[in-house]
Amino acid sequence: MAEKPVKFVIFLSLILSLVAFWDHQFTSYLKEFVVLIHEICHATAALFSGGVVKGIALHGNEGGETIAVPASFRGSFILVVSAGYIGSSLVGAFLLRLGFQGRHARQTMILLGLFLISVSVLYSKLGELAYLTGIFWGVGILVAGMLGETISILSLVFLGTSISLYSLYDLSDFAERLTETDAGILAFWMAGLGPEDLQNEEVPTVVVVLGYMIATLWSLLSVGIIFMSLRSSLSHEESHDFPSAEESFERFPGDLSPEAKLWLEKRGVDPESGIVLPPNLFQDFPPKDNSP
C-alpha cells in the first residue's frame, strides 16, 4: 500500500474521525458490529474447543451474549470466556495489518462477509439485532470486496482500526462494572461460585481481586497485540525484488542478436549465462583480423 508516512496519516485520520463522531448514530451501528465480533470470538473458541454454541444475541446497549456449552475439559471455559476481548483485538490487528500490507484484500473481504452472514443465519434468531447486524455488515463487506482491490484495502484498514479502537475502549468496562464483564464471570467461576452468586449485591473480595488480575492481564495482552500489529503495519515496506543478471537473461524473450552478444562480451559478460567473467578472461572483441 502506501509508504510509512502516508500509512500513519491514514490511521491517525481514521482515529480522529471515529473519536469525533463517537456518539453519532452511524458509530452506534459500528459499535454493534464490533460487539458482534466480540461475541463471535466467544462462539468460535467454544466450537474450536469442542463445545456447542446455542445462540448469539445483541442487547442494543453495546452489550451482547453468547450462549454456549464449553467442552468438558476444565481449561475450555477459560478459553471461551477469554476469547471475547483477546479475540476481538486479534481480529482488529489482523485486518489492520492485511489492509496496510495490501495483500489478499479482496479475498479477505469476501471471506469475512460470507463468514458474518453464515454465523448470523446459523446462531442468531431471525429478525433480532444480532441477525440484522450480521447480515447488514456481512453483505456490505461482501459487496466492498467485489468492488476492487483499492476499496478492499481501504475497507480493511477502516474495519481493523475501528475494531482495535473499540477493543481498547471496551477495556474501560473493567473499571466501571467489573463483575458484569467477562473478567468478573471468570473470576466468579475461578472462585468456585455459581451463576446465582452473580446476583448478590455484595461481591466477595476474592472475586474482586481475581477479576482485576484477569482484567489487567487481558488489557496488557490486548494493548500489546494491537501495538505490535500497528508497529509492524506502519513500518512495513513493499519489497522490490530486482532480478539478478542471471535471472534477467532467463526472462529475456527470444534469442539475443549478434550485436547484443557482442556488446555484452565487450563488457565482460557471458551472453549465454549472464555471468560476469573474471578480468583475466576478458578479450578484445571483435577478434583482430591478422590475415594479409
Automatic annotation (TrEMBL):
Record flagged with keyword NAD: no
Record-linked InterPro entries: Peptidase_M50B-like
Domain of life from the UniProt record: Bacteria
Transmembrane segments: 6-22, 77-96, 108-123, 206-230
Keyword terms: Membrane, Transmembrane, Transmembrane helix
Pfam families, alphabetized: Peptidase_M50B
Annotated segments matching region Disordered: 271-292
Protein's UniProt name: M50 family metallopeptidase
Native source organism of the sequence: Leptospira soteropolitanensis
